[in-house]
Amino acid sequence: MVTILGRAKINLTLDILGLRDDGYHEIATVMQSLALADTLTLTRQEEGITLTVDLPGLEADERNLAHRAAALVMRECGLRGGVHIAITKRIPVAAGLAGGSADAAAALRGMNELYALGLSDDRLCALGAQLGSDIPFALMGGTVLATGRGEVMQTLPDFPMTHVVLAKPPVAVSTPWAYRSYDAHPPEFHPDNASFLEALERGDRMRCAELVCNVLEPVTETAHPVIADYRARMREHGALCAMMSGSGPTVFGLFAEERAAAEAAEAFRLETDAAVHLTCTAGKYGE
Fold first, then answer.
1. Which of the residues are catalytic?
2. pLDDT tens-digit profile of 152-188?
3. Are the C-beta atoms of residues 28 and 17 closer than 8 Å to each other?
4. From CA 155, how far away is CA 137, in angstroms rounded?
């Protein structure tokens, strides 16, 4: 039996560079892993894949990315035997935080360890990329510039440890819808990734906070004005910056001080109907 964490992520920048020939969008995004994580416990069994999730309504069959990740490893490595995967969910679902990708990454690492396969990180990332664009990052963690459709990664200096408040409004956002809406009405502004990377190299958290930018935010915010309200509330409570992660709808605020972050999280719990999490940035896998 092995136990593996699958960490959430936020996008500190997210730019869309165009539509690729394969139908995916070319992106450039700085992704940051968080301490907030799901826990996967994998146990060997004689045959087949079984899966349990402690969140009612979440798929616990081959539609689940963790199930698909385990199945992929079994096929690729010709494994005899099976696995039971128990998932304890903490990352909000359909929130722009890559919870499904985090679980898939944890399942890949868990299978590698459980069966002593000796697969390299590069091999695990190649397998993960077959299942989803965010999975290679979820495998590696830390602070990364992801390009291509998200699977080409450049490791960056760690973002300075920062407290993070996550607030997910009770709305649903479809990622394909967000990208289609972006294509129909692209915004005039784009992230200055070059300046962000320069500030990150200097360890200048304040300058990085000034440069956070997500081109999907205006699209999703137009359909769901609550996102603008949450961003304003984060800033009112002292956030260095506040932005939507991914295609949304979760809004994150970065805070220099733990006390301010805790007070902001409590205010969101009292004043809104958001799902709220208080967490912090995290380093690379294994650190």
1. 9, 134
2. 899 999 999 999 999 999 998 988 999 999 999 888 8
3. yes
4. 10
